[in-house]
């Protein structure tokens, strides 16, 4: 008798619900791990904001196959240990279908084994080549790799007839990865690394290292790191009156670097995605309209300028949204869809993933820029 009454009550409740509620499909939970605060917030803050904006936009358009998206985002503060705590929450507590981020190479490498064991798709927004090389079945990334970045820098150096360089790299996995590429690729471009130095991510002075580089008489210096260290290097180069070209990595491709380095940023050359020079691109560039639309949306919502780092999250969300279509929330189907994604034009470049390449970008994802008058100038 009690069972019959319970059934009647349940039926009565269901009859009161609207057809929309009755037909609603389960929410697709997707995770995010970004350095939203802390020293790497210039990376993570625009990534977090972009992910939230994109999820909102996708839901307003009806979601994915009728499934609304729910973004569950944690702040790693740029700390690998906090990234590990976040990934465990996303896997075991939140039970997300995929994760976007983290923002940095060290925090990404800290969680790779966790997502691999959980067989959970990860789309990192960090650059280190070790993230996707060798290929890991469940790990992808949208940031251009340092392998391509070093080649772009060296092509420019070679074109200037420079033969001897000094390098200074941050002492973490991003800097080590860059250093490895700088040393490995130098002979291919006829370059000799006459002095290699490193600096700590929190160092406030690098004059000792730069003095050693100066004594080796290089014709140019290449710095590899993310803010604020590279800005310190730029200021120290100016203080030491090192009148030779200073190159930086794509790890400083944001207005924050110019803000931190001040006048010392003038004349610095670096590789970057096209997002920093959208207005200078030719009208027939396949990325231009995508970049313009992203910038309009971001600036309207957040009243701030976009960066290439936000672009990494923009691409990651769009790639994941495509992969979710027709998956019915099956992680294996999502992974396979990502791995077969081809000719996807995004903010960072054209992605062509494969079983052999989980970054999927070509050298054309980079342009070279010079900082002039406090802004970016495209080098033709």
UniProtKB/TrEMBL annotation:
Keyword set, alphabetical order: Amino-acid transport, Signal, Transport
Lineage: Bacteria, Pseudomonadati, Thermodesulfobacteriota, Desulfobacteria, Desulfobacterales
Family, per entry: Belongs to the leucine-binding protein family.
Organism of origin: Desulfocicer vacuolatum DSM 3385
Keyword match tRNA processing: no
GO annotation terms (biological process): amino acid transport
Name this protein carries in UniProt: Amino acid/amide ABC transporter substrate-binding protein, HAAT family
Keyword hit for Signal: yes
Leucine-binding protein domain sequence ranges: 28-373
